[in-house]
Specification:
Elements: H1 20-33, E1 44-61, H2 73-79, E2 83-92, H3 123-135
Antiparallel strand pairs: 1-2
């Protein structure tokens, strides 16, 4: 074949995106970050703004126009003044992870990895692994 049009390119064996060692490292990372996060549910975070909410943290005097649902009636019974319960309102936060899917992400290392060593990933696989780790 003069132009080598029909030769097959040698492909590397597929590398699992998340191997056991990587998942163990992610679990350790997850445990380190959990105490630092204050939001309870996925997609929620606590606001710094104190406003009438279910998660009670403080009181403030009632001002005309405040929602009567947030008045602390027990405090009113004790003090004969209206107080509004304040708390940290949870806010939903949307996060989008976008990956570059252009041809430049198709770069692969030239040599396959040896057994027992860390796999050499392509740019695309590394980006997928990073996005998966951030979303974990």
């Amino acid at each position: 074949m003069p132009l080598n049009l029909f030769k097959r390119k040698a492909k590397m064996a597929p590398v699992p995106l998340f191997d056991e060692a990587f998942l163990r490292r992610m679990e350790r990372l997850n445990y380190r970050t959990m105490p630092a996060l204050r939001g309870g549910m996925v997609g929620e975070r606590r606001s710094r703004n104190l406003r009438p909410a279910l998660d009670f943290s403080d009181h403030r005097p009632y001002v005309a126009g405040d929602d009567l649902r947030h008045v602390d009636w027990y405090a009113f019974a004790r003090h004969k003044d209206l107080f509004v319960k304040l708390g940290e309102a949870t806010q939903r936060i949307d996060i989008h992870l976008l990956l570059d899917a252009s041809r430049s992400m198709g770069w692969e290392p030239g040599e396959p990895y040896e057994k027992g060593s860390e796999p050499v990933l392509s740019k695309w696989d590394m980006a997928r692994r990073l996005a998966g780790a951030l979303a974990y």
